[in-house]
């Protein structure tokens, strides 16, 4: 049983396209994190959300706590956005993280 | 401010051996978490330490252990290595957990032959 489900698993887009990655979770959470992992392994935290919406440059993350769902949007995608995007949740009352399986994004020039 | 550092970056060990990995958190961060990443299982939580205390442990066998020192540096140890332990081991530091942002180190890639 996966506490966190992500879709799609793989995504190929043309440069400039609008991209959406979805994350659903089944546990009560204190926060949801979107992470970016480039080839070679380094992971960067993009967003941490407990409600509403956050924006950073061309990236937007939203969360609906009632529906247990979050989306990561990339506007005007660029080849440098090519990476694996991972959704992770912090359950209420736990210091343990649960991770989605990741979405591998390739943006073609 | 220096980021999270992990040593060594790459390691090759033989089945049955043990290994110790090190993680130095960002200055001022008291929480260090460890994760295992494999192609088959993805990212999985190993354990989290805060102020030298293990606060939570993931679903891993007792061969996986860790500790945290008074300066917040952390080590994880894997004893009696198995081929399936080959993975990227990541640590992350933060001021706390849950609603605190995590800062990841570059990882240690362990290969067990």
Describe the structure.
The complex is a heterodimer of chains A (109) and B (113). With 109 residues, chain A is mainly β. Chain A is 0% helix and 61% strand. Chain A has no helices and 11 strands. In chain A, the strands form 2 sheets. In chain A, strands 2, 4, 5, 9, 10 and 11 form a 6-stranded mixed sheet that branches. In chain A, strands 1-3-8-7-6 form a 5-stranded antiparallel sheet, with no helix packed on it. In chain A, strand 9 (83-91) and strand 10 (98-99) form a beta hairpin. Chain A is globular and about 45 Å long. The model of chain A has no long low-confidence stretch (mean pLDDT 93). In chain B, the strands form 2 sheets. In chain B, strands 2, 4, 5, 6, 9, 10 and 11 form a 7-stranded mixed sheet that branches. In chain B, strands 1-3-8-7 form a 4-stranded antiparallel sheet, with no helix packed on it. The mean pLDDT of chain B is 94. Chain B is mostly beta strands. In chain B, a hairpin with a 3-residue loop joins strand 4 (31-38) and strand 5. Chain B has no helices and 11 strands. Chains A and B meet through strand 4, strand 5, strand 9 and strand 10 of A and strand 4, strand 5, strand 9 and strand 10 of B.
**What is the tally of helical segments of chain A?**
0
What Rg of chain B do the Cα atoms give?
A: 13 Å
Distance between the termini of chain B: 37 Å
Shape of chain B: globular
Oligomer: heterodimer
Briefly say what this structure is.
The complex is a heterodimer of chains A (109) and B (113). By secondary structure, chain A is mainly beta. Chain A has no helices and eleven strands.
